[in-house]
Known about the structure:
The complex is a heterodimer. Chain A is mostly helical. Chain A has helices at residues 3-28, 35-74, 79-91, 94-109, 117-146. Chain A has one domain (3-146). Chain B has one domain (2-166). Chain B has helices at residues 2-31, 39-73, 83-103, 109-128, 136-166.
Amino acid sequence: MSFTIAVVVHVLLGVTGVAFSYAVALGVKKRVPNVAFLKWSSAIALISYLLSWATGAYYYVLNYGTAVKPRIMEGAYPWAHSIFMESKEHIFLFLPFMALVIALIIFVRGERIAADVSMRNSLFILSLTTFFLGVFITLSGVLVSGAVR
Amino acid sequence: MVYTLLIIGHIIGTVLGAGAATFAEILHMRAMRDGVMDPEESATLSLVYRVIRIGLFIAILTGFAFLIDFRFITGHEERLYSEKLWAKMTIVLLIPVNALLLQARRIPFWLGSALSLTAWYAAIVLGVFRAIPYSYLEIMSAFIVAVLVMSAILEAIRRAYHKMTTA
Lengths: 149, 167
């Protein structure tokens, strides 16, 4: 697989994962949550994050460290790597596991979501946190990409 | 070819989003003319909100495809540090955050609806005018003023519509 294709898949699946984490947050807050929609959305978010992780890892291990990182560190924006890539490569690890927890709760206890307000609020906060972490990781990726000149 | 498809996709997403956001406002105004939203009106609005979300998803996905294009195809990495691009991304991010706040009833409706409508049209304006010589802060300040103006306009339209339908 070429590195460009790996990054394209990494970015598009990452954005898809963030979008479906958002869909879960929005869906949980509905007056009558649609459990089937929540199951689909949480499963798509989880699969997207896992595949985005795999393609991102492929690019990072085989290309970024040797060909891209040195260019960023020698360029005008070394902080793009030292702050944003360093944060991104650690914080992103939360995403697939948070998405897994969300999907597990919805698949195992989905029928209780409408009645259990406490579980609903917890699920909302968890999916919202996943969404905002995903947004941070995505924007960090834009900053790192822009620093390669 | 791929670039043309991306442009078409981006325009379709934006048109769906901005168009549906406009209709959401009109339909909400119409539904609330008697102060009560019946199930039929609520179902229609749900459908329109779904179209907004689909439009947003298409616009964001194709938008990121453009960013990939800048980095890997055309080699215009400097565009990723454009203040206009970051202002546009901030404004587009406000659309889903605002929808969440509206859903959770954490933002007054007059502000949420004005913010949504202004954000969609601001995204169009920023997309059309490629070389805007303004900084991030200037664009965001103009956006805040535009939201306030939009909320005043919407309130005036709501009052006029209410007067017209109750007369």
